[in-house]
Structures are given as C-alpha cells and as structure tokens.
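Much of what follows relies on a compact textual record of a protein's fold. A record is reproduced here so that you can trace the correspondence yourselves:
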Amino acid sequence: MSDQEKFIAHLYPAAAKVSQETGMSKELILAQAAEETGWGQHVLPGTNNIFNIKASPDWHGPTKTFNVWEIEGGKKVWKDQEFRVYGSAEEALRDRVKFLEGNPRYAKAGLFDEGTKGHLEKEAAALQKAGYATDPNYAKQLIAVANSPVMQRVIEHAQGQSPAQPTTHAATSHSAAEGVLKQGDRGTEVHTLQQNLSKLGYTDAHGHALKPDSDFGANTKFAVEAFQRDHHLAADGIAGPKTLHAIQQQTQISKAPGLDSPANPDHALYLQAQKAMHELDARQGRTPDQQSNNLAAALTVAAKHEGLTRIDQVALSDDGSRAFAVQNGAFKQTAQVQTAEAVHTSIAQSSQALQQAAPAQPSPTHIQHQPQTPQQAPPGVNV
C-alpha cells in the first residue's frame, strides 16, 4: 500500500463515522483531506489540522502561525496566518463540520440544503462558492481527487474491511469459493454483491431498496435476474463469473461523474441539450422539470453516437413521439430518441450508456432534413 493509500485508509474510519453522524459526504471529507495535505505529506507540523482551518476569533483552542500563500486580486501573496491545533485527526474531522455549520456563508452558499448535503460534487461547489479556498478551480480539484483511482481503490478496500459490515455470516460458502453466488449462500461476498446491485438501482420484487444483509435470499435472486436480463445474460438468478464481472464493470462505470457533473467530459454538450430543451419547454408553456433533463441527457447520448459536436436546438416530431437534437450548419445534422422512453431514463442511466458506447464518426447517412416545427406533445407525454 502506497503512502497515499495509507493516509486515506487511516482517515477512513473517522470520516465514515463523522459522515454518518452529520450527513456530510465522506468522499468529500477524504478528498479535501488529500487535497489540503498533498495526500498527508503536508500537514502543518504539530497541528493535526487536516483541512488547514485558520484560527478565527471564536476559536479558543491552541494555535500555530505559518507563512502561507493566498490569491488576492489574481495575484499570489504570502501572509502569516494562525491555524487551529487539534489533538487528533478525528478531532480535526469533527471540527471541520462544526466550523462549516457555524459559519453563515456556507449555509448561504447552500452547503446544507437538501440535495446538496451528502452529495460530493454539490458540496464541493458550495464550498468554493462560500470561499473556502481562493483557488478558482478548488471544486474541480476536489472532485477529481475523489474520483481518482487511488481514492476509489482505498475506499472500496476500507468498506470491505469496515466493522460496520455484518460479521455474523462471515463464513464463505463452497460455491462462493468457486466464484459463484446463489440462493442460500451467505458471507461477505454476498454482502458486496448486494451493495453493488443496490448502487446500480436494482431492487427486490416489491420495488424496495435491496438490503445488504449478507444472505442470498429470494430478494437478491430477483435483483440478480433483473440485472442479467438488462445485460443480455442468462437470467437464472445465479451470480457466476460472467455475471459478477458484469456487475463489477457496471459498478465502476456508475462511479464516474454523470452528464450533469462538471467533471464529465461531455457536460458541455449536455448543458447545450438542456438549454435547448428548456427553450422548447418555454415555447410550449411548461416549466422545465426532471423529465426535461432526462430527455436532454438521452439526446446527448444520441448526439454523441451520431457524431454531433454541439446541440443548437431540440425539436419534436409532429406527434411528439420522437425528439431530435439538431446541429445547425450548412447541412443540419440530427440525432433522435423515442420521447416516452427518454423522459423516463435517468441522467445516471444515460451517463452509463454513453460511457459504454463509442461515438460514431459523422457520415452522409447521418445528415437529415431539419425536423418539422415542434408541436405540442400528445397527452401523457411529458416533454
């Protein structure tokens, strides 16, 4: 294990505990710790101050003074600053949350809003908006660190070793030892399988979230069968090598930032589709909603597949059954999706589909006439 991995592994138990107690993103806690300290290499000596929190007037604990740089007026300047001193790294993690909660500018920036709190990318954006750091790329850097292979590898390992996971069924079944999991099996391998299926959005037969209880029962079999059908595997409910590999592969894909994240390489194209979709909504006299954004994401995938490099307009067919992404120019290029299906395809699902599909090169067969003037969608089709 590298020094970087050891640093995160050391902090993980405390970060997970603080996250569980406060609802803050543990991934962001760890990413910020790595970013602020150079993966543990640059903790201010004798402080345990993982997040480089300065000693404000309301801090009554010990302090140390260091000469550090800030960006002011676009220029790098050096200043003597007092920083807080902690008795342990865990104490620093707890005080980070206390510091953020006690400073009105973070609440004003939306850090604790529903939908933001606990969300890696939104928390990072709120921290930057509130001025946690003067670096204009601070949020992007935190997201990149959180999604880095080193961080993901350590978190996965730490979660696998976490005391919070069930230990009553730790024994490995004979089938699990052979790389096959089936109904009746118990153990940590089953727990990991259930966690991954749950992360991918698979549920039990009643539509409830799959509970990672380390026991391969009827609910787990149902979820495995659903995954197998979705990925063109034999739907026998047995997680053999092919199924386990496919689940692992999809789990890795799902960890990548979605189209609605600035960290996604196709985020700009998605924003173009979203803007055009919202303009279409306005022309139709409706308020943009999640289904509008879902459709924008689906059109982004279709546009990439057809080789479009931008989306200038979104239009509907006369009956509203199809939606088109349009790239204007000497020859208009379009990509289309089925409206009813697209509005119910989540952004996460579209993001995963885009990761698995290589974009095609534009060809004459992709050049189509401009769609007819957008018409109101028929009742029941929410676009």
